[in-house]
Design a protein that fits this description.
The protein is of the alpha+beta class. It folds into three domains: 138 residues, Trna Endonuclease, Chain: A, domain 1, CATH 3.40.1350; 73 residues, Winged helix-like DNA-binding domain superfamily/Winged helix DNA-binding domain (Arc Repressor Mutant, subunit A); 139 residues, Beta Polymerase, domain 2 (2-Layer Sandwich). The protein is built from 13 helices and 16 strands. A hairpin with a 2-residue loop joins strand 15 and strand 16. The longest helix is centred in the C-terminal third of the chain and has 19 residues. The chain is elongated, with a radius of gyration of 26 Å.
Length: 379
């Protein structure tokens, strides 16, 4: 098959799109050496079977499996459940019916929803997950889109979007019904109502939020957390190494003093926050978020010196003051101290290297998922 014919295809009509997707499906199935005698049928315009392409694959036990392919120019995650509710009835009484979504480009979120609803999928670039029970499992990802992908309506990697997502994912807000105005009021620092509207529309389109009476609520907090994690820019935080002779109780007292004096502008972060919130990974460094304006106070209170090597304290100066919002507080050795909120700790750990992913998963399993599950949310 001429790959260029797909890459350069003019997809300005449904028929052209179906032909290009049919050609790609033939290539994908043709890559399975032992699979013989399979063709992809483009259904006639007058044939109303509820899908666009049909491929029948012989089963080793006799009979056939039918791939019923729905071709779309684009698919918003929020509309996928409506498509997934369809029941396809191809002719010939196949033993296995596999619903398949075909798009010019399948986003990671749409791919997730296909798996959740038992659908297979493929796109024009050759990325795919085609699962035929009892016959084959064909999966590939990483090919660049051959057509321009739709631009997201909001960038979840910005600091302003992060302020909104932190509020939505706080355990204390599990199952909470929101209005855009209320969400704006809870963001620290404040964000514009226009940005809240933009982010909320994007999260609805991605099926992370669902409409509720008088507003909306988080429908899939786990996948929203993962989406934020994937877009989060941990590398934009300034990182500095310090050495201090303070240990154990002396270190806890210093953290408490600066936390109290600054109104919460120094927090345990990363591995140190996880050690308090969900102990799982041992590591010798103390990790702190410190506001830029409080560095001098930190250095004086901790008797700390900046070092290029041999640091025992890692100071992160955040790009956004939002990391200090909604701290997870408590007492440590009878002194008031606080950590970053649980969603913030999770995304920081995921980008911290070492055993950060392990610590993040412990936090997720022991602190976040139980709250979401108790609120009746997807986990």
């Amino acid at each position: 098959m001429n790959i260029a014919s797909i890459v350069n295809a003019r997809l300005d009509s449904p028929a052209a799109l179906e032909r290009a997707l049919a050609a790609r499906l033939r290539e994908l199935l043709g890559s399975v050496d032992w699979l013989r005698g399979v063709d992809v049928e483009t259904l006639n315009a007058g044939t109303d079977r509820g899908f666009d392409l049909l491929a029948k694959l012989p089963l080793p036990t006799g009979g056939a499996a039918a791939l019923c392919v729905e071709c779309k120019r684009e698919m918003r995650p929020s509309t996928f459940p409506m498509l997934a509710s369809r029941v396809f009835k191809p002719g010939g009484r196949p033993k296995v019916i596999v619903p398949v979504l075909a798009l010019p480009w399948v986003s990671p979120r749409v791919a997730e929803l296909c798996v959740e609803h038992g659908w297979s999928w493929f796109d024009l670039a050759g990325n795919c997950r085609i699962d035929v029970p009892g016959l084959l499992h064909l999966q590939h990802s990483g090919n660049a889109p051959v057509h321009e992908r739709p631009r997201p309506t909001a960038n979840l990697g910005t600091k302003e979007a992060g302020r909104i997502i932190r509020v939505l994912l706080l355990p204390a807000h599990a199952g909470k019904r929101w209005t855009q105005r209320l969400l704006q009021e809870r963001c620290e620092p404040l964000v514009s109502l226009g940005l809240v509207n933009k982010v909320v529309r994007h999260l609805r389109d991605e099926a992370f939020l669902e409409s509720s009476e008088g507003g909306f609520l988080v429908h899939d907090p786990l996948k929203l957390l993962h989406a934020w994690r994937d877009m989060y820019r941990f590398d934009q935080q300034e990182r500095h190494g310090y050495f201090t002779l303070l240990k154990n109780l002396g270190l806890v007292k210093a953290v408490s003093q600066v936390f109290t004096k600054t109104g919460g502008q120094l927090l345990y972060a990363g591995f140190s926050a996880a050690t308090i919130q969900a102990p799982n990974v041992r590591q010798p460094l103390t990790w702190l978020y410190v506001h830029r304006q409080q560095i001098t106070l930190f250095e004086k209170t901790f008797e700390a010196k900046p070092v290029d090597s041999g640091a025992n304290v890692i100071v992160l100066i955040p790009q956004d003051d939002g990391v200090f919002a909604n701290p997870d507080g408590g007492l440590l050795e009878d002194f008031p101290v606080a950590c970053t909120c649980l969603p913030q700790t999770y995304v920081d750990l995921c980008h911290s290297g070492g055993r950060g992913q392990e610590a993040a998963e412990a936090l997720l399993e022991r602190r976040l998922k139980p709250v979401w599950k108790a609120a009746g949310l997807k986990v």
